[in-house]
Amino acid sequence: MRRFFLALLLVACSGGSSSTSTSTAATDVDVTGRWNGTLTSSVGLGASFTADLEQNGTSVSGSVRVAGGCVGGGKITGTLAGDRLDASFEAGDVTATLTLTESSANQLDGTFTMPAAGACDAQQGSVSLVRR
Question: CATH for 2-131, among 2.40.128.120, 2.40.160.30, 3.30.420.40, 3.40.50.1450?
C-alpha cells in the first residue's frame, strides 16, 4: 500500500522547469513552479513528494520525485480549466489520475485514483500541494 501511495504522489506533481507560464483567457491559475505535496489514501497511508510543474496556456507538464515506495518518480501532464487541473501521472506501467482545484494562490487540493500496476497496489484518496 505504501508503494502505491508513493506512485500516486509522483502522479500529482511533475515538471522540472522554471520558465514563466503563459496565461490565456481560459484560466487565471498559474501552476508553474516547485510544489511540495502529500498524499493520503482512503486506508490512511501517506507519502510526501516534490513536483516541478510548467504551464503553457492551459497545458501543464512536469516531473515528480518521491523518496522510496513503488515509484521513485515520473511525469505528469494535464489540462487547466478555470481553477481545476485534471492530470495524469505515468511512471513505467504505473498510471494515476488526479483532479486538483486551486484552494489559494499557492495551494492545490484534490483527489487521486491509481489502479494496481507493477509493484503498486490500487489506491485512491486525497492529495494536497503547496508551492515552495
Answer: 2.40.128.120
Q: How do the pLDDT tens digits run along the chain, 132 residues long?
A: 344 333 344 344 333 334 444 444 456 889 999 999 998 998 888 889 999 999 999 999 999 998 666 888 999 999 999 999 999 999 999 999 999 999 998 999 999 999 999 888 899 999 999 999
The reported pTM is 0.78
Round to whole Å and give the CA distance between 53 and 102.
14
The strand pairing partners of 91, in sequence order, are: 94
